[in-house]
Amino acid sequence: MAKGEEGERPFHFLASWQTHPEFHEVVTKSWKSDVSIIENLETSTKQIKDWNTKFFGNIFSQKRRVLRKLEWVQERMKHNRIKALKIDGSEWCFDSEELRKHAVEYFSKLYEADDYLLEDYPIQGSFSRIE
Q: What is the spatial distance between Cα 3 and Cα 131, in angstroms, rounded to a whole number?
C-alpha cells in the first residue's frame, strides 16, 4: 500500500473502479515504463485518487449524508400516522378499526372495475379481490 502525505490515509484499491470504463485508461496513462516502480506507484496513486474524486467524489461522506437523511426520514415516519379522519364530512373519527374499515372501503371503490371496461378488456378474474 502506498502511503500518502503526512496525515493522509493510506491508499486502498477499490475493486469497483475496474467496472468504470475510464479506469483502465487512467492506469495506462499514469504508468511509465522508463521510471522506477516506486515512482509509478506514487504517480498512479495520485492519478487514481484524483480520478476517483472527480467521478465518484468522497463516497464515505456521501454515505454518511445518505444515512443521516434516511435516519431523518425514518424518524419522521414514526410520527406521521393518521390518527383521525372526518368520515363523510361529519365528526372526526379516532377509532383505529373504524379508520381501517373506511380506508379499505374507499380504496376498494376507487379501484373497482367499471362494467364498460370489462366488455372491452376481458380481465375479470385476473386479479385477487381485496376484502
A: 64
Tell me the pLDDT tens digit for each residue of 84-126: 888 877 888 889 898 889 888 888 888 776 555 555 555 556 5
The Cα 73–Cα 39 span in angstroms is 48
The neighbour count for residue 88, using CB atoms within 10 Å, is: 8
Sheet strands (E) in the chain: 85-86, 92-93
Higher pLDDT, residue 79 or 5: 79
For residue 5, the model assigns a pLDDT of 57
Total residues found in the chain within this entry:
131
CB distance 30 to 43 below 8 Å: yes
Rounded distance, CA 10 to CA 2, Å?
A: 6
The set of residues, in sequence order, having a beta carbon less than 8 Å from that of 1 and lying 6+ positions away, is: 10, 11, 12
* 44: nearest Cα among 70, 62, 26: 26
Q: Which residue has the cell 406521521?
A: 80
Helix, strand, coil shares of the chain as percentages rounded to 5? 60, 5, 40
